[in-house]
């Protein structure tokens, strides 16, 4: 299983919002190890809910989620070892990427989703 973030705009006349953005956040193992466990340790209530079926972040909760991400990133900067890497496969080539860089790239997807939801009055789902 993997985790994606999606942003939906405000509900239209049918009661449904249009999907505005979707991006991958990571595998189940990576999300649990690097997002959920630290979130629980740091007392970050929204990110601690990630192991559930779906995390819905309403428009009025976006600022709180953004603040939680800042705390999580500070934690990663302090704790992720410099020499830890992840493997990327692009076509027939393989690349080792520093884990911290990978995590920061993925959190940028979530930050983009938050910004889109803020600007459109939408909601975010993970």
Question: Quick check: average pLDDT?
Answer: 94
Radius of gyration: 15 Å
Number of helices: 3
Number of strands: 6
Which range does the strand content fall in? 25-35%
Structural class: alpha+beta
Broad shape: globular
Low-confidence segments? none
Cα(first) to Cα(last) distance is: 12 Å
The SSE string, one letter per element, is EEHEHEEHE
Share of residues in helices: 40-55%
Largest sheet composition:
4 strands, antiparallel
The main sheet orders its strands as 2-1-6-3
3D structure, described in words:
It contains 3 helices and 6 strands; from the N terminus they run ββαβαββαβ. The protein has 126 residues and is an alpha+beta fold. The strands form 2 sheets. Strands 2-1-6-3 form a 4-stranded antiparallel β-sheet. Strands 4-5 form a two-stranded antiparallel sheet. Helix 1 packs across helix 2 and helix 2 packs antiparallel against helix 3. The protein is globular and about 50 Å long.
List the main descriptive attributes of the protein structure presented here.
126 residues, alpha+beta, 4-stranded antiparallel sheet, two-stranded antiparallel sheet, 3 helices
Task: Compile the SSE list and pairings.
Blueprint: E1 2-8, E2 19-27, H1 28-42, E3 56-57, H2 62-79, E4 85-90, E5 93-98, H3 99-120, E6 123-125
Antiparallel strand pairs: 1-2, 1-6, 3-6, 4-5
Condensed summary:
The chain has 126 residues and is an alpha+beta fold.
